[in-house]
């Protein structure tokens, strides 16, 4: 509870989490805050080469301690949505077999 107004006998408590009351104009609920929550990246789908992808979960949360998810548009108003997938291990060249012509057998 937050007291708003001058300290007089007629002051009544104004609750910050309730809609504004006529005699408590500053008692509107605080603006809801939203933010992105991301999990750790998954293991890459490929150990080498250009086709590996890794993934993570990206959710928009209501930042009130409840961990409830919100519509993504709420978070997107503030910051762009973080990537939920990206390439990985593309810089690692995959090993491959090299086939060469047969050589002469050495007799010893």
UniProtKB/TrEMBL annotation:
Localization per Swiss-Prot or TrEMBL: Secreted
InterPro entries on file: ADAMTS_ADAMTS-like, TSP1_rpt, TSP1_rpt_sf
Gene3D superfamilies, alphabetized: Thrombospondin type-1 (TSP1) repeat (2.20.100.10)
Keyword Nucleus: no
SUPFAM superfamilies noted in UniProt: TSP-1 type 1 repeat
PROSITE patterns documented for this protein: TSP1
Superkingdom classification of source: Eukaryota
Keyword Secreted: yes
Alphabetized UniProt keyword annotations: Secreted
GO-annotated cellular components: extracellular region
PANTHER family linked: ADAMTS A DISINTEGRIN AND METALLOPROTEASE WITH THROMBOSPONDIN MOTIFS PROTEASE (PTHR13723)
The protein's name: TSP1_spondin domain-containing protein
């Amino acid at each position: 509870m937050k007291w708003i107004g001058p300290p007089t006998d007629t002051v009544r408590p104004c609750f910050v989490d309730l809609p504004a009351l006529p005699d408590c104009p500053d008692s509107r609920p605080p603006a809801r805050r939203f933010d992105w929550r991301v999990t750790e990246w998954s293991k890459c789908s490929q150990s080498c080469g250009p086709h590996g992808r890794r993934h993570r979960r990206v959710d928009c949360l209501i930042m009130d301690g409840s961990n409830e998810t919100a519509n993504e548009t709420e978070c997107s108003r503030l910051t762009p949505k973080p990537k939920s997938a990206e390439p990985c291990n593309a810089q690692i060249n995959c090993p491959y077999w090299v086939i060469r012509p047969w050589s002469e057998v050495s007799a010893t």
